[in-house]
Design brief:
The chain has 463 residues and is an alpha/beta fold. Helix content is 43%, strand content 13%.
């Protein structure tokens, strides 16, 4: 954040050559400038480059209010919050004004009166772009007063008449003047409350308890909704839908790389989670989205894989703390801990009762097998298979350290198999080496080359 300009009066602002722009024009100019310069105006958004982003950019250039439709965990709120970056970093406002009006364009009676009385001495303050974004979760108990406003009894008690427009306490939308107001889960808003937004969306004025206060509000209205909300929990009334200039469908990442990027970006990891395990979680999530056993109308949120990554990192840190390991690194054995706690994030189809854990286990094994095929392509496992068949079983588990696992591996003579795996995975410590080798062992089990036995204590034996 840069320092705010030191201009403090309307006269100084005019002398500086400052140009007033409406919100839509400001967003349009900054978006076009970023595109012309090759800058990414949407940092942190993955998988939308060829679909959602072009539609959104066209809507903003056209100056449209936008509603985003998509299942849970598709990044709708992230898109809304990223739009703040399209504002100028600092914008002038009338110091002390309730709605943060631009000094060139006061709209409330109080600000208009002050501007007339003070002229060029009208005090100016500066508002950062982060303060020009307001977000409201549309809960069923949201009232007209919350969004639009109501008569303030305290102001009436001070002696002002009920007909005085200055007795109004403004709601969220008027207070978002010169900014963006985002309403999450719009269909959850009661229909009578949605009706109150009609004039704001089209005529840009507000009506409070019979008063018609003509406020030329300069606000961009954004909203998000789940398509199923139209029938299940509520709906967006037709006149309000008509007032949104653009309706944009979001989606889950199409490419595996985008799914991995989302997990890496959004997860807060307490230990090292190697790339191959993040890939497993990404493939696992994508398999759930394609499964007939899962209710796809509900969707499988990106938060599922994010929570999975955080869970296996926590399992690795727990093991390292209890067993005194120097490096806390997640391994394949930790994936079981994620399955145990993530089942509640999935809505299964009717008729799958009792099979939820079995379905999750099957799809996780599928994800691991696909990852093994991709990661170990070109590496010959024959020498390891022969050594396992002739040697002692290899034991791992939630509380087995990386060093114990590595020491249990059979010697391979002059074979460079272990070195090849270490280089392929970029392993630099025991934890990372053990994580890569354990993936290889699990791959051999899934390919039915070795046996696997899991004990009640969480101990896993390959042999």
């Amino acid at each position: 954040m840069t320092q705010a300009p030191d201009i403090s009066t309307l006269g100084a602002l005019r002398a500086s050559g400052h140009e007033f722009k409406e919100v839509r024009q400001e967003i349009r100019d900054n978006l076009l400038s970023a595109l012309a310069e090759g800058r990414d105006p949407w940092p942190g958004l993955h998988g939308f480059e060829a679909t959602v982003i072009p539609q959104l950019e066209r809507a903003l250039i056209a100056g449209h209010d936008v509603v985003l439709l998509g299942e849970r965990g598709q990044g709708k709120t992230r898109i809304l919050r990223t739009m703040v970056g399209l504002f100028d970093e600092w914008t002038p406002v009338i110091d002390g004004s309730e709605l943060g009006e631009h000094p060139y364009a006061p709209i409330t009676p109080a600000s208009i009166r002050r501007a007339a009385e003070l002229g060029d001495d009208l005090p100016v303050a500066w508002r950062h772009r982060d303060e020009r974004y307001a977000e409201k979760l549309a809960t069923p108990d949201t009232s007209v007063a919350d969004l639009i406003g109501d008569v303030d009894p305290m102001k009436v008690a001070e002696g002002r008449s009920l007909g005085d427009p200055e007795t109004i306490h403004f709601g969220l939308i008027p207070r978002s003047h010169r900014g963006i107001v985002a309403i999450n889960e719009l269909p959850d808003l009661a229909e009578r409350i949605q009706v109150a937004m009609l004039n704001v969306m089209e005529e840009r004025d507000i009506q409070v308890r019979g008063y018609v206060l003509r406020l030329p509000l300069d606000v961009l209205v954004m909203a998000s909704a789940n398509p199923e909300d139209y029938t299940n929990r509520g709906r967006i009334i037709t006149p309000l839908k008509d007032r949104f200039g653009a309706e944009i469908r979001t989606h889950y990442p199409v490419e595996l790389e985008a799914e991995v990027a989302v997990i890496r970006q959004e997860s807060h990891l307490t230990a090292t989670v190697p790339d191959h395990l993040v890939e497993v979680l990404a493939r696992f999530t994508r398999a759930l989205r394609e499964s007939n056993a899962v209710d796809q109308r509900s969707g499988v949120s990106a938060r599922f894989a994010i929570a999975g990554a955080e869970t296996i990192a926590a399992a690795a840190l727990h093991r390292a703390t209890v067993r005194g390991e120097e490096h806390a690194v997640a391994r394949v054995v930790d994936l079981e801990t994620a399955v145990d706690v993530l089942g509640g994030k999935i809505e299964f189809e009717t008729g799958e009762e009792g099979r939820e854990h079995e379905i999750l286990q099957h799809l996780l094994r599928t994800a691991v097998a696909e990852t093994v095929r991709g990661r170990f392509r070109g590496i010959d496992f024959a020498v390891l298979i022969n050594a396992i068949e002739q040697g002692a079983p290899i034991t791992t588990g939630e509380q087995v350290t990386a060093r114990e696992l590595l020491e249990a591996l059979p010697p391979l003579g002059e074979s460079e198999f272990y070195d090849t795996v270490e280089k392929r995975f970029g392993a630099t410590n025991d934890g990372e080496r053990a994580s890569a080798i354990e993936l290889a062992l699990e791959g051999l089990y899934l390919a039915r080359k070795v046996a696997k036995d899991v004990g009640d204590d969480g101990e896993t034996v390959y042999g």
